[in-house]
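Support case: N~2~-(3-carboxypropanoyl)-L-arginine complex. Customer-provided input:
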Amino acid sequence: MSLVEINFDGIVGPSHNYAGLSLGNLASARNAGAISHPRAAALQGVDKMRANLGLGLTQGVFLPHPRPDRAWLEWLGATIETVEPYLLANALSASAMWAANAATVSPSPDTVDGRCHLSVANLISMPHRSHEWHCTIAQLRIAFADERAFAVHGPIPAPFGDEGAANHMRLAPRHDAAGLEVFVYGARGGPFPTRQHVEACKAIARLHGIHSALFVQQSEEAIAAGAFHNDVVAVANENVLFCHERAFEHRGNFLAALRDEFPWVEIVEVPADRVSLADAIASYLFNAQLVTLPQGGMALILPTEARDNACVWGWLEEMVAGNGPIRRLIPVDVRQSMANGGGPACLRLRVLCDPATVDPRFLVDEAKLDRISEVVAARWPEAIAADALDDPALWDRIEQARAALLDALDLAELA
Ligand code: SUG
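Agent response - structure generated as follows:
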C-alpha cells in the first residue's frame, strides 16, 4: 500500500459572505459588512487546486454544507423567516470551506491499530461553526468508509473546544514513517477566546491511539495578536517545522524537546526582529501549504498577500536562496477567503493514505475541476451584500446552487 498525502479542499459555498462572526480573527472583523463574491471565491479555490494538481500533488474536495442551515434553526426553535439577523448570519455562513478545521487526522504510521484516524472537530467556540460537524462527519463517513484503512470519530464533547487540524502538526522523517504529532492548544489569548482546549487535544490523542504526541501551548501573545489558530503562525511537513519565533508560549522547552528527542526535525524559525507577529498575521506567510514535491524538495504555497509584504517576501527570498529544505515559493490568489481570515492552508485538510481506499467521488482531476467550475460559474451568486442575507430569493439560489453541485459530483445523498 502506498501512502500519499492528499489535500482535501473545502469548495467555497454559494453563501460565502462577510458577517464579522469570528471574534479574534482580525480579517473577519475588518471586513464585516463588506460585499462578498462567492463565485470568484469558489473559482479562486478551484484555481488553487488546479495549480496543485499541476505540481503533481493529489487533490480531493469536501462539499459545501446546506445553507441556510434550516435544521439548526429548527433545533433552536426558530424559522428562517422569523429568526433574528444575528442567528440568520450564523445559519448562512460558508465557513465549512476552511477544511483545516474539519477534523484532526492521525495517519496510519502513527497509530497503534495501523489505521488512519479522523476526529471531526466540534468547533464549539464560534456559533456559526458549531453546526458544521454534522455535515462534515457525514462526508468523512462516506469518503473514508473503508474500515480496514480508516476510523472516523465523533466530536469531542462540550465544553472542550476542538478546531481540528489547524492546531495539529505532524512531524516525521518521511510521510510514510512513524511520526510525532504536536497538538497546540490555547490557555490564554489576551482579549480573545482560546478555541483549542488541551482537554480536547489529549482526548484525540487517546482516541487515535497515537504512539508519540506532544502537547504545546500556543503563545498568549500570538492569539492576542490575531493568531486564532496555530496554523496562522506555524506549519509542518515531514521533518520540517516552519514557525514564527513567538508562536509558542514555552518556545525554549518545545524546541529543546524536539532537538533532544527528535533530532531529525529541521526547525526553520522566523525571527520576530525580521518579521513581526503583526506582519506574519497580516500576510499569512505561515498559513501556507508546505508540501513535498514529487520530484523532491519542498515548496510553500502561500497567499499573494505574503508576496505583497516587502519585509515578509524579503525574508522568504533569503530563505529559499539559502541551503534550507524549503526550495520554492508559490503565491496563490485566495483573496476572497483571506478576507475572512482563511489562507491556502485553512482551505485544505491533509490526509495521508492510499488513494485507492478513498471514495473516488471526493478525489478530483482536471476534468472534475472543470465540472465544478461550470456549476460555480452558472449557479453561484456573483455578489452578496452583508445586509441582504434576509432575502428569500437568495436562500433559494444558494440551496439550488449546492444541489446542482451535489448532482454534478454524484453526491446527492448529502442533500
Ligand atoms: O474560523 N473565519 C474562519 C477562518 C478559519 C481559518 N482556518 C484556519 N486558520 N485553519 C474562522 O475564524 C469568518 C466568518 C465571518 O466572519 O463571516 C470565519 O469564520
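The longest strand covers residues 4-10.

Case will auto-close in a few days if no follow-up is received.
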